[in-house]
Design brief:
The protein has about 400 residues and is of the alpha+beta class. Helix content is about 40%, strand content about 15%. It has 13 helices and 12 strands. The strands form 2 sheets. It has a 9-stranded antiparallel beta sheet, sandwiched between helices. Strand 11 and strand 12 form a beta hairpin. Helix 1 crosses helix 3 and helix 9 crosses helix 13.
Length: about 400
């Protein structure tokens, strides 16, 4: 049976990332049952054994270890094959004194080229076209590194996003390029929530900044993670609706290693606990917890949604997942009741809430049945709709089912 191309790309991507960590350049491809490293040096290959058939059953940490082992073998095979060139037909060998001289000569040439490259070029004479070369910018290497890092993270995220759309689960080894967001909104009040006192128990901000570290004692699993770019960004999420009372809101954006917990089955509950406690303390009317690719506005993996009753929670599912899908699952007249193109600023959330107002708990439960979604909450109190860890696309499918039920879904 032919292997799934998405699965092969996933294995290739993971091994390529590990090869890069060994400081080796090239392209990783799977050919037949071998993984091959080509380009920027001699080609090398390693037999995959039964890995392709076993991949879907392997835990994420085992996948990571297998990818690291294969990458190490590829790199070792390349280095072993990088021997001095010989002519098989002539039996030619380089005299011993030539090699050191050649190395010294190449070294000197390298030093000169480096000096020439790093020396400011503004003093050089114009070229043949009469235009002087631009001065060297010492920041280019750092900028290039950052742009390459972002591009790599986006590739990884898009690869795992394709798996999400097929119903797969994204694990801790697939989190590069992802962020986790918790957005909470309330209809009453007269100011943004970014400086609400309730937030101080959750985020310890740096002086003069809207970002900091997660410190809530109720979810130590999240706060224990540290590392580069591991922080919580606090952002105003208020919606100045043109046709209804303004919704005041805040978004907590988790980045870096904080994201790992959301993609770990045993730890995601800590995110749900955080979301529930914050929604209670802020008096939220609507809220959603989801993950997305950092370079995209599309919400891919939703797991927890809050509302004033089951109808309000259903509105949150539709808004945070369906309205922010690619393409949107919601009809244009509901997304943009006052025109425009900005979903956040259009007042779409309140339009959706109006459409779901008559949904009763039993009806919501029935609609969520096929996705495994759960509804919790006491009568006349806030309700939560949550989705199990397995199958990352469940919230998106539930959003479409709910939107169809209240006749606001896009029709083909």
């Amino acid at each position: 049976m032919q292997a799934d191309p998405e699965l092969l790309r996933e294995i290739e991507t993971l091994i390529a990332e590990e090869v890069a960590r060994f400081g080796v350049a090239g392209e990783v491809r799977i050919v037949a049952n071998n993984v091959v490293l080509e380009g920027y040096g001699p080609a090398s290959g390693v037999d995959l054994g039964a890995l392709i058939d076993q991949w879907d059953q392997l835990p994420h940490d085992v996948r990571a270890r297998r990818a690291t082992g294969l990458a190490r073998r590829l790199v070792e095979a390349r280095r072993a094959s990088a021997a001095p060139l010989r002519s098989a037909s002539q039996g030619f060998s380089m005299p011993r004194f030539v090699a050191p001289a050649l190395i010294l000569g190449l070294g000197a040439a390298g030093v000169w080229l480096a000096y020439d490259y790093l020396t400011p070029k503004a003093t050089k004479a114009p070229d043949a076209a009469g235009v002087a070369p631009r001065p060297a910018d010492s920041s280019v290497p750092a900028d290039q590194y950052e742009s390459e890092r972002i591009a790599r993270a986006e590739r990884v995220c898009q690869t795992t996003r394709a798996r999400v759309q097929r119903g797969a689960t994204v694990g801790p080894t697939d989190v590069e390029g992802w962020v986790v967001e918790l957005t909470l909104l309330r209809a009453d009040g007269d100011s943004a929530l970014t400086f609400d006192p309730a937030l101080t128990s959750f985020v310890e901000r740096r002086a003069g900044s809207l970002e900091g570290k997660f410190v809530w004692a109720g979810a130590p699993e999240i706060g224990a993670r540290t590392g580069p770019a591991t922080k919580v960004e606090v952002e105003d999420a208020s919606i100045p609706s043109p046709a209804a009372p303004r919704l005041f809101g805040v978004t907590l954006r988790f980045t870096g290693r904080y994201v790992i917990g959301y993609f770990t089955e045993s730890e995601r509950i800590a995110y749900h606990k955080t979301a529930h406690t914050l929604a209670t303390r802020l008096g939220a009317d609507f809220a959603g917890l989801f993950a997305r690719c950092a370079q995209s506005s599309t919400h891919q993996i939703g797991s927890w949604f809050w509302g004033r009753g089951p109808a309000g929670a259903a509105a949150s599912v539709i808004y945070f997942m369906g309205a922010h899908a690619d393409p949107p699952q919601i009809e244009q007249k509901t997304l943009f009741p006052g025109g425009g193109k900005d979903i956040v600023q259009s007042g779409a959330l309140l339009q959706i809430a109006e459409k779901t107002a008559d949904l009763k708990r039993e009806r919501v439960l029935r609609l969520l049945g096929s996705t495994g979604g759960m509804v919790s909450g006491r009568p006349d109190a806030p309700h939560v709709i949550s989705f199990p860890y397995k199958d990352s696309n469940r919230a998106s499918r539930a959003s479409l089912d709910l939107a169809r039920e209240v006749d606001i879904a896009v029709t083909n």
